[in-house]
């Protein structure tokens, strides 16, 4: 039986896909660790009672996130981006526009919440924004190993999760909760 633990990381270092070891608090690990957290939130979202067509898009997004994670773990930039590129911001825009077509135009800030699925989508949105910050910081530090379009995809994904949360609430008959400055 193969065991899941190796004890190789017990001293606070881990191996990268392209070789070499880095500390577990390295910015590269922060980036793909946050990406993993986002993917887990999407897995939680997928456990909710949502329409099947949403599940198909989620599965595609989760696969794209895994692909991004493998490229983030490749510090030497040796991996080639698959064709077609698995992270495609244009595809997210098309889906977002379809969802947004059912919604009233946004005229104010809204508070996260509503249905449980919408609330989970909002949590995913915030984790996605943190992931974007980590990947952006990594790109400033070492952009030679980051393929094009990665940050744009993550940026668009957070927007998509926001629209998706609004769409889920709308379909459940729950109005946006508008933030009012008091």
Short overview:
With about 180 residues, the protein is mainly alpha-helical. Helices cover about 55% and strands about 5% of the residues.
Reconstruct the topology from this structure.
Blueprint: E1 13-15, E2 21-23, H1 27-46, H2 52-72, H3 89-100, E3 110-111, H4 116-141, H5 150-171, E4 177-178
Helix/strand class: mainly alpha
Query: For the CA atoms, what is the radius of gyration?
Result: 18 Å
Distance, first to last CA: 61 Å
* Shape assignment: elongated
- Domain count, please report it: 1
Q: Kindly state the mean pLDDT as a whole number?
A: 90
In the sheet with the most strands, the strands line up as 1-2
Spans with pLDDT under 50 lasting ≥5 residues?
none
Secondary-structure element order, as H and E?
EEHHHEHHE
CATH topology grouping: Hypothetical Protein Ta1238, Chain: A
Strand residue content: 5-15%
Instruction: Tell me the number of strands.
Output: 4
Polypeptide structure, described:
With 182 residues, this protein is mainly α. The chain has a single domain (23-76, 83-178), classed as Hypothetical Protein Ta1238, Chain: A. It is built from five helices and four strands. It has a two-stranded antiparallel sheet with strand order 1-2. A hairpin with a 5-residue loop joins β1 (13-15) and β2. The radius of gyration is 18 Å and the shape is elongated. The N and C termini lie far apart (61 Å).
